[in-house]
Amino acid sequence: MEVLWFLFLLVFCLWIPREVVGRTGATIANSTGSSSRPSVLTIGALFTFNSVIGRSAKPAIMAAIEDVNANTTILPGIRLDVILHDTNCSGFLGTVEALQLMENDVVAAIGPQSSGIAHVISHVVNELHVPLLSFGATDPSLSSLQYPYFIRTTQNDYFQMYAIADLVDYYRWREVIAIFVDDDNGRNGVSVLGDALAKRRAKISCKAAFSPGATKSDISDLLTGVNLLESRVYVLHVNPDSGLEIFSIAKKLGMLTSGYVWIATDWLPSVLDSLENVDTDSDTMNLLQGVVALRHHTPDTNLKKSFISRLKSFKDKETKSFNSYALYAYDSVWLAAHALDVFIKEGGNISFSSDPVLHDTNGSMLHLSSLRVFDGGQQFLNTILRTNFTGISGQIQFDMDKDLIRPSYDILNIGGFGSRRIGYWSNYSGLSVIAPEILYNKPPNTSTSNQQLYNVIWPGETTNIPRGWIFPNNGKPLRIAVPNRVSYLEFVSKDKNPPGVKGYCIDVFEAAINLLSYPVPREYILFGNGDRNPSYDDLVYQVSQNNFDAAVGDVTIVTNRTRIVDFTQPFSTSGLVVLVPVKEIKSSPWAFLKPFTAQMWCVTGAFFLFVGTVVWILEHRHNQEFRGSPRQQLTTVFWFTFSTMFFSHRENTVSTLGRLVLIIWLFVVLIINSSYTASLTSILTVQQLSSQIEGIDSLISGIQPIGVQDGSFAKKYLIDELNIAASRIVSLKDQEAYMDALTRGPKNGGVVAIVDELPYIELFMSDTNCKFRTVGQEFTKSGWGFAFQRDSPLAVDMSTAILQLSENGDLQKIHDKWLLKQDCMAQLNVDESNQLSLSSFWGLFLICGIACLLALIVFFIKVLCQYTKFNPDPEEANDEIQPARSKRTIRTTSFKNLMDFVDKREADIKEILRQKSKKRRRSQSSDGQSSSPS
C-alpha cells in the first residue's frame, strides 16, 4: 500500500505544470556530465516552518549557509545555496514539496522533520541518488537497509527508548502505559520501547494510541480509559506541537497528582527550550510539575554558547529561544559542506542525468523527465558516511548502522518555572550524574550498582518514589485461588466464617498483606471439587491464564511453574522425603557387642595382649611380681593386661619404660571405655527400628509401588526426573489412605513407601504417634510461595513483607500455632552404621603402638650394652670352651647365654658387673707390679 500511495503522489505531483511549480535553483551540470568545477552548489531544506522544530531549524540552516560561504577553507571558490520548502505539517503537502524540491537538481536535502514524510521521500532519493540528511526524523525503522540514502543527523529514537527502559528499571517499575500518536514515528518508537523493557523483565501493559488529528474529546476518552488501569507509569511519545494538550487534559482528570509518573520523550524539552519566556508562561509550567523528560545531550562548549547567542541576535528569526534541533540542523549543513569539499577534491563529478525509468509517454503531461539522477550520488553518500568532525552538537561521526556515535540524553525533572537536570544517559555507561564526555575517558560500566540519578520531585511535590501501580479503580478485588484440600487441612481449608478460608498458609498471606503500605481488596476462591486434592500444576496454570490474579496455599516453587508465573519469597522450606513402615526390634542378649564392630573388637583384644607382653618384658628384670615359673608369668601377663580395662591391676610397675607404656595404655583404655559406655547406653535406651527401604535410591532400584499425595508435584518428579515407571505410582487421597497403604504393604495391595514433602510427612508422623519414620535424606530442596501473574508488582512487595515476618518472628509464631506437635524427627534410628569402628580410634592405637616399640628398642639396647660388658674375654672363653666343639655349638651356646642373661634380675647383673670390674682392676694392678723390676 505504501508503494502504491507513493506512486499516486508521484503521478499527481508531476502532473502539475512546470510553470506552476517553478524552479528556484540552478542546474549544476547537464546530462553530458561536464567535469568542470562548479561555482554554485545547491542543497534543499524540507521542513515545517511554523512549528516548534521548524522555528528553531530555519535560522540555524541560514546561519550555517552563511558560515560555510564565509569560510575559505571549505568549498573554496564555490558558493553554497539552499532552497527551502515548507511542508505545512501535512504529509500530503510535504510529499508534494519534496518532489518539487527534487526538480532543482539538489546535491543533498536537509530534512524532513517528520518521520512519516521521510519514509516516502526516502523512496524518491533512493531513485535519484540524492542523500537525505534529516535532523528531525527519529523513527528507528528509517535506519533499515531499505533506505540507503537516508542519513539521520540527529539521535535515533532507538537509543531514547532504551534510555527510558533503563530509567524504568532503575526505579524498579515493571509495567508502563505508552501514550503515543499513531503514526510511523509513534508506532515504531513504542515498539522499540517494548523490546527494551522486555530485556529488563518489564513490559508495556497498554499501548494507548490516538490519531494525529485527534480532538480533545478523543484524548480525554483515551486518558480516562488508561486511568482505570493498574499501571501509573506513563510514557508520552507525541509531537511537540500537540503534546501540551495531553497534559492539560490529564491535569483536569487528576492524573498529575501523587502516585503518578509521567515520562516524556525529547519532544517536551524541545517545546520548553523554544518558549520565549518560561516565567511568563506559568500556566504551561503548572501542567508539567513533576514530569521527567529526556533531552538530546549536547556538550556545553563555548562554540555552542556563542552560536545560541548569535541566533538570538537574528532580526528575522521567528523565535527567541532555540532547541537542540537547531544545533542538529546547523551541523547537517556543515556535514553536507564537509562531504562536498572532500567529494570534489577526490575528483567527484557534480552532474545529473535522466533516469531511463522516468520518461513521458506520448501525450503525457506528467513531465517525469524533470526528475534527474545525481550521477555522483553513491560516491557522495559514502563520503558523507565517513566524514568525521566536531560540530556544535558534538562529534559528527556515523557507526555501521548510520547512526551518530555516542548517543546520549539529559534526564530532566520539570519543577517550579523550569527544569532541573537529574542525570544523564548514554549507551556507553547507562544512567549517571557525570557528563558522558567525561565517562568516555573511563572504562564502560553499566552494572546496576553504577547506575545513579539525583532525587526527583514527583507529581504531588513528593520525593518518595511512586510505587508505579495501584489496584484499578474498577471495583474488582484481587481474585485469589485457594486449593480446596481434603487432607492436611492445617495448611489450608474451607471455613464457614469470613474470609471463607483458614489455615497456616492463609494466616501467613494475611499477615504479609497487613504489612503493605496500601490496601489490597481481595476475594478468596476455592479451587477444586472438594472430593480430592486439586492439581497444583493446573492451579498455577489458571493463574498464568488470567483466570485468577494469584494462588495462595501450599504451592511448591518448582521449575516448570516459575516459567509461567512469579512466586514470592518462600515462606516455608520444603523437600521430598521417603516415609516407610517400620517394626520395633526387641533387645538381643548379645546387644553388649553392638557398640564396636568386629574389627574393633579384634584390634582392641590384640592390643591388650601386646601391651601386657611389652610391660612384662620391661618389668621382668626389675619387678619380682613379674618373675616366677613360666606358668606363673603367663598368668601374670593375662591378668595384668585385662585388669587394666577396669583400672584394677594389682601389679606395680617399677621401671621407667614400663610406667611410660602403662600411662599411655591407660589413657587409651579410658577413651575406649567411655565410648563403649555411651554407645551401649544409646543402643539400650533409644528405640531401635528397621526397614527394607533405606532411601530414594532403594526405591529407584526396586519394582514395588510407591505412594504420593493427590495433586502433588511429586508424581511428575518421580516419573520425569527419576525415571520411575508411572505404573508404580499410587495417588493417595488423605492421611487415612497413607496409613492404610503403608500398613498393608506392597504384598497386600499397599505401597512400600510414600514420597511426599517434609511438612506433610512431619504432620502425618505426629498424628500417628510416630509409628512411621523417614529414611535417608531430603533429595530435593524447595519451598512454598504465593503465585502471582507474570511481572505482577504485588509479588515483589509480598516478598518483602514475608522477609519482614521472618525477621520479626511472626512467621515462626504462625507456624507454631498450626503445626507445632510431637517431633518424631528427633527419634532417629540406630543401626549398624552407628557402630564404633577402628577408623575412630586408630590414632590412639598408633600412638600406643609406637610408644611400646620405642620402649622395647631402648630396653634391648640397654640389655645388649650390659651383655657386652658381662660376656668373658675371648681368652677366657677359649680356655673354658673345649676345642672339639663346632662353630654351630658355639653360636647356640652364645644365644642361650644371652637369653640366660636377659632372664637374670637387674640387681644380680649389676652385682656381677661390679665384681668383674673389681677383678679387672686388681689384675691390671698385679701386671703392673711384675713388670716394674724388669
From TrEMBL:
Q: Which organism is it from?
A: Crotalaria pallida
Q: Check the record and name the InterPro entries matching this protein.
A: ANF_lig-bd_rcpt, GABAb_receptor_plant_PBP1, Glu/Gly-bd, Ionotropic_Glu_rcpt, Iontro_rcpt_C, Iontropic_Glu_rcpt_pln, Peripla_BP_I
- Ionotropic glutamate receptor C-terminal domain residues are 479-821
Q: Which residues cross the membrane?
A: 598-618, 657-676, 841-861
Q: How does it sit in the membrane?
A: Multi-pass membrane protein
Q: What function does this protein fulfil? A: Glutamate-gated receptor that probably acts as non-selective cation channel.
Q: Which residues form the signal peptide?
A: 1-22
The compartments listed are: Membrane
Molecular function in Gene Ontology: ligand-gated monoatomic ion channel activity
- What PANTHER family does the record tag this protein with? IONOTROPIC GLUTAMATE RECEPTOR
- Region annotated Disordered, chain positions: 913-934
- Disulfide bonds, which pairs? C770-C824
In this chain, composition skew of type Low complexity spans 925-934
The name this protein carries in UniProt is Glutamate receptor
